[in-house]
Amino acid sequence: xxxxxxxxxASEEFKEELKKISEPSYRAEQIFSWIYKKGACDFSGMNNxxxxxxxxxxxxxxxxxxxxxxxxxxxxxxxxxxxxxQDGNLIETVLIYAWQRKTxxxxxxxxxxxxxxxxxxxxxxxxxxxxVSEILSQILSIEHHLKQRIxxxxxxxxxxxxxxxxxxxxxxxxxxxxxxxGIAARRITVSTSGIIPGIEKIKKLGLQINxxxxxxxxNNELRSRLMSVNKKYPLHELLNSCExxxxxxxxxxxxxxxxxxxxxxxQKDVDELVRAARRLKAKVNLIAxxxxxxxxxxxxxxxxxxxxxxxxxKRGVNVTIRDSKGKDIMAACGQLAGEGGYGD
Length: 344
Fold this sequence. Notes:
Strand content: 15-25%
CATH superfamily of the largest domain: Aldolase class I
Helix content: 25-40%
Structural class: alpha/beta
Strand order of the largest sheet: 3-4-5-6-9-10-11-12-13-14
């Protein structure tokens, strides 16, 4: 019989698993505490469990891990980690420092099937979804490496989180649960390129997590050119879905807007973005494009990013220029590809 990865189970699910092997359900909480609060990677060190139980757990289950291959540090302190999965696929995870905040940018897929035209993650195609265990292992591995707790978590790494909704939502529940990692929902942000069925599901999740929309154009034609997902889920349908999300108790919505020189930085783009942001009372995170080898897009001049911000502010939009960190190690927005920036 194939062993099962414990980190793919939520607490209540694992209680049912324990019943199958004739063990009391209260043991689930003890085992989860070892894994998620003490970072245990095997059963042998769980010293409040009897040996027969540890032997039985080893027979039927294992605690999944991902293999850290490389680690880079940027001149701005950003850190990038390259992990190898059990099947040989590679993913990247980024840790960003800002004041007292340590934010982990988590990957949810190996590759990306949506292949936005300005992003590196989909350039080598889509490999597969990450399991719940592989998502959580990014957090546990990096916290173990740093020997300190991470404060904030954004699902903005490789892949489209809401295209892997079942695994991402279960991972979030374990992150948030007191029996799991005990992370406050407000410290967790999910970013989506606009998967409408996923947005409809996430509002029913019952957790006050933050939702971020990778918008990048508030014009349907331009957005379809930049983001293939817009052909399946057009802009007007996406905005309607976001409006419904807000009306049904969602927290403040954020639009991520990567500013690309000569592409989405005109006065017309300002006007269209103002209309969308005002309609949804959304905050705008303005991000200067970070170059990707092999793509022809260019980063805007710093002063032009500021001009674009000023135009939005004058029209009453809540906007922040988000410094895209880690460019020197290919760790900035749109640069993650599961291979770049490590040298030989």
